[in-house]
Amino acid sequence: MAYEADDVARKVISDAGFGDYFVHRVGHNIAVDVSPHGPGANLDDFESKDTRLLLEGTSFSDEPGIYAPDFGVRSETNLHIRNGKLEVVAGLQDAIIPILK
Questions:
Q1: How far apart (Å, rounded) are the C-alpha atoms in residues 45 and 51?
Q2: Which pairing describes strands 85-88 and 72-74: parallel, antiparallel, or unpaired?
Q3: One-letter-per-residue 3-state SS of the chain
């Protein structure tokens, strides 16, 4: 179920000591016909518990983030399920992009 992906990412971040700073769901469904946020399953056990399945042919973001008082970091990967496997569909992030005040 979709919420289980959120639980896995949340455990990794919490085990590293940053759980209090992970204050949003891991990801959301992506659709091309309605908006960037589609009507399908979200990787969410924080804002809501999404018990829907991640279905073949759907796309979604995977974007865990830590937002501490002294720093913030977020990584986003967009994924698609094809032939029962995850495919990265928007390229892999290969560099840190600092955003400063």
A1: 9
A2: unpaired
A3: CHHHHHHHHHHHHHHCCCHHHCCCCCECEECCCCCCCCCCCCECECCCECCCCCCCCCEEEECCEEECCCCEEECCEEEEEECCEEEECCCCCCCCCCCCC
What pLDDT does 34 receive? 59
What are the residue boundaries of the structural domains of the chain, listed by start?
Answer: 2-88
What is the C-alpha separation between 7 and 5, in angstroms, rounded? 5
CATH architecture of 2-88: Alpha-Beta Complex (3.90)
Per-residue pLDDT of the chain (101 residues), as tens digits, is 999 999 999 999 999 999 999 999 999 998 876 566 667 899 999 999 999 999 998 899 999 999 999 888 888 888 999 999 999 987 777 787 777 76
Kindly give, in sequence order, each residue whose CB lies less than 8 Å from that of residue 96, ignoring residues fewer than 6 positions away: none
